[in-house]
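pls design
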């Protein structure tokens, strides 16, 4: 009974609520076990992860031509900080005997034991977005943005924009991050800070963690701006954080007066670039994470193919100059 309750709770956490896109299953129906590829992400409550879902749906539709009974489910906790909730969802997928799991781990160490359990149960796991620590033999492939490279690209853009505006690469900047310890955050923010330190005289005065909550990010940014009126730049390291940061900048009436670089490519962030609230956004191909994640899981679990150990899903730096280009439109969501 307890196990059934966990499964039901997991299914209710899909965004939109209780939505399963599975051939041969009605919306909100139960798991399909051996014909199921379970896509489990950090949360469904952001455009980024919903675009991962869109990619997964596209892959499912293609693959059903070969395997009509294939189903792909999309599950996630209510927030990225609910690590135990995500662990329970993965365990539920293992218990119902899914064919494969595509997982975006919300914690780089806490999800390791349950991924090992999946391997022991004969269920291949494809990791997306954030790399787990430790033994890579417990999963078959890792698909993600090169977050270190993306963070460095954001830092390079920050330095160039600050120089263009102020005439120098000196001054105070702030980092608005999301969840400490997440693999993507470690690479992204770590790469940003390292590049800033080695290639400029900019001083990072604070790093804040919003837990990927827009309201928290807005309040944190408001406080940082008030405490540091001489900031020359600010970096928002993921979608909810960058949106909250942008809204705080707008509310403070300093849009265009401070160099603001965001991360991810929702329509809200794209509009911030267009109206000058943000000067740049680094956009990942979240669609590719879902699409290639499911295709890779299918290849290894059903087609019995050898798959690459690592796949870079790419990123694009978007500014006001190229925000309407096809290259950027292809990755916005």
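designed seq:
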């Amino acid at each position: 009974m307890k196990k059934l309750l966990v499964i039901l709770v997991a299914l209710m956490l899909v965004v939109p609520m209780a939505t399963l896109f599975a051939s041969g299953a009605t919306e909100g129906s139960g798991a399909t076990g051996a014909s199921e590829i379970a896509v489990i992400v950090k949360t469904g409550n952001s455009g980024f992860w919903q675009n991962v879902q869109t990619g997964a749906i596209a892959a499912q539709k293609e693959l059903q031509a070969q395997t009509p009974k294939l189903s792909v489910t999309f599950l996630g906790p209510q927030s990225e900080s609910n690590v135990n909730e995500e662990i329970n969802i993965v365990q539920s997928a293992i218990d119902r005997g899914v064919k494969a799991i595509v997982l975006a781990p919300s914690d780089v160490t806490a999800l390791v034991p349950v991924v090992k359990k999946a391997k022991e149960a004969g269920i291949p796991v494809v990791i997306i977005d954030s790399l787990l620590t430790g033994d890579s033999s417990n999963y078959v492939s890792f698909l993600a943005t090169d977050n270190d490279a993306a963070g460095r690209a954001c830092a390079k853009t920050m330095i160039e924009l600050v120089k263009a505006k102020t005439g120098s690469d000196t001054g105070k900047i702030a980092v608005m991050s999301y969840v400490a310890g997440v693999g993507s955050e470690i690479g992204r923010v770590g790469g940003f800070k390292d590049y800033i330190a080695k290639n400029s005289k900019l001083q990072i005065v604070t790093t804040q963690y919003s837990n990927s909550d827009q309201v928290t990010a807005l309040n944190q940014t408001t406080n940082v701006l008030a405490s540091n009126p001489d900031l020359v730049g600010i970096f928002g390291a993921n979608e909810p954080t960058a949106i909250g940061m942008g809204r705080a900048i707008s509310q403070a009436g300093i849009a265009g007066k401070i160099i603001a670089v965001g991360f991810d490519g929702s329509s809200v962030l794209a509009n911030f670039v267009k109206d000058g609230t943000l000067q740049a956004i680094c956009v990942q191909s979240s669609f590719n994470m879902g699409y290639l994640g499911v295709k890779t899981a299918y290849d290894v679990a059903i087609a019995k193919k050898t798959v690459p150990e690592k796949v870079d899903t790419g990123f694009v730096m978007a500014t006001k100059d190229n925000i309407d280009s096809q290259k950027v439109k292809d990755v916005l969501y």
